[in-house]
Amino acid sequence: MEPTRHLDVVTVRGYSEIKSALRKADKGQYDSIYVFFTGDKDQNGVSWCPDCVRAEPFIHGSLDKTKGRSIFFWCYVGERDKWKNPKNQFRVDPVFQLKCIPTLIKIGTQKRLTEAQCCRDDLLDLIFDDDSDECRASARTNVSSSASKQCCMCILF
């Protein structure tokens, strides 16, 4: 019998909203917590970020790949000028450490997809695969000590 699958999708806007929402997302309540960071949309529903526009249908199409009880946050990072500021809270946050958008991360793991990676079904399969959460990079031979701290997905690129 296949385990029960349940997905909550929540939209948040800005840094304070995602930080508050993550505090409220009880780890005991969810098996997996995902955050997709994307550019704000205009009055016509189109993001100022062309890479985000390209990634959106891939992300939507992959949400059915989540397993167990999961929560998926769709996080809007703000307008272009605010995002481009090097001191933007999303960029300097020690957990998020965003360098670009779109970015999809799985909280509590080192799994992260950025930009064009968010448009690759094979990589989206990996990020939603609970069986690959444990980083096996250190098990690889000839991997430097700094690389052994990276997720297997990170070493692929």
UniProtKB/TrEMBL annotation:
One function term, GO molecular function aspect: protein-disulfide reductase [NAD(P)H] activity
Origin superkingdom: Eukaryota
Stored InterPro entries: Thioredoxin-like_sf, TXNDC17-like, TXNDC17_dom
Thioredoxin domain boundaries: 12-130
GO cellular component annotations of the record: cytosol
Membrane-crossing residue ranges in chain numbering: none
Pfam families for the chain: TXD17-like_Trx
SUPFAM superfamilies the UniProt entry points to: Thioredoxin-like (SSF52833)
Family the UniProt entry places it in: Belongs to the thioredoxin family.
Protein name: Thioredoxin domain-containing protein 17
Record organism: Biomphalaria glabrata
Gene name of the record: LOC106075493
